[in-house]
Structure formats: C-alpha cells, structure tokens
Write a structure and sequence with these properties.
- InterPro entries: 2-oxoA_DH_lipoyl-BS (IPR003016), Biotin_lipoyl (IPR000089), GCV_H (IPR002930), GCV_H/Fam206 (IPR033753), GCV_H_sub (IPR017453), Single_hybrid_motif (IPR011053).
- Belongs to the GcvH family.
- The glycine cleavage system catalyzes the degradation of glycine. The H protein shuttles the methylamine group of glycine from the P protein to the T protein.
- The chain is of the alpha+beta class and 119 residues long.
- It is globular.
- The two termini are 19 Å apart.
Length: 119
C-alpha cells in the first residue's frame, strides 16, 4: 500500500489501484455527510479533482493519484457517506482506477514514511 501527501491510500489489486482516504484524513474531516464520486469510464489525470467529500467541518476535493480510467466506484458511499468515518482503510474505498502509467505509484510513500509525516 502507498500513501499520498494528501492523505489518500493506494492499494494494488491485480492490474487496478483501489483509492481511499486514510484514517488520519477521516478524523481531520469529522463526520462526513456527502460524497460525490466520478463516473465509471472517466479518464482522469494525476492531480485532477475526481471526488468531492463534505463533512460537518469542511468540503474537500480528492485528487486523482494516477493517470488512468475509473473502472469502478463504491456507490455504497453515496447512500452512506458516514461509512468513511467508520472504515476509511477498508470498505469505504472511493474508486478503482486502471492506471495508464503504473510507475506513478513509485512516487508515493510507504506506511512508515506516511506515519512519520502525520506524527
């Protein structure tokens, strides 16, 4: 698993990358009340806004961590955005992307470096 400076996690799954936000990010946001996910089939570019989340404290944009195509979204979050607070590192993933440049994963932090950044 890799981590971004924007508090996203990226988990390889076959030839796809599953993307969500970290526990730290979910705690900082507070109670999440709304999620807008991208459409399946959307081509995204690294650092392009692709998810909007709103909490009782703030609204945040989630940026695409890689170039590629969104191949699946977690529709359950639209109905139950609070799930992000309950299980941000597990069932509350946002989307799966088929990267066009998988080597972009190499730019991100491993867990030890991420934990040092947030401590």
């Amino acid at each position: 698993m890799k981590y971004t400076e924007e508090h996203e996690w990226l988990r390889p799954e076959d030839d796809l990358i599953v993307v969500g936000i970290t526990e730290h990010a979910a705690e900082q946001l507070g109670d999440i009340v709304f999620v807008e996910l991208p459409e399946v089939g959307t081509e995204v570019t690294k650092d392009e806004e692709c998810v909007v989340i709103e909490s009782v404290k703030a609204a945040s944009d989630i940026l695409a961590p890689l170039d590629g195509e969104i191949v699946e979204v977690n529709d359950m979050l639209v109905e139950n955005p609070g799930k992000i607070n309950d299980d941000p590192m597990g069932d509350a993933w946002f989307f799966k992307i088929k990267p066009s440049e998988p080597e972009q994963m190499d730019e991100y932090m491993d867990e030890a470096v991420y934990n040092k950044m947030i401590s």
